[in-house]
Amino acid sequence: xxxxxxxxxxxxxxxxxxxxxxxxxxxxxxxxxxxxxxxxxxxxxxxxxxxxxxxxxxxxxxxxxxxxxxxxxxxxxxxxxxxxxxxxxx
Length: 90
What we know:
By secondary structure, this protein is mostly helical. It contains three helices and two strands, in the order αββαα. It has helices at 13-22, 40-62, 71-88; strands spanning 25-28, 32-35. The longest helix is centred in the middle third of the chain and has 23 residues, at 40-62. The model has no long low-confidence stretch (mean pLDDT 88).
């Protein structure tokens, strides 16, 4: 849902909106994370995923370790979400 990277977008509202047309989540300096989705359930899930990503980033930075989710793992997580969890909603 958020992919392997969350882009940092600086600039006005128009630039942020344009970035959200391509991504489900962006980071805006001085504001925080901005997410978009088609339903309230997906918005809640995105908020949780962005929070988890931020916590993981803080922990890996504190340990001076670089860690990323691989392309295969990201694709697998998206497939599992689309095939299983998105169908469990409402």
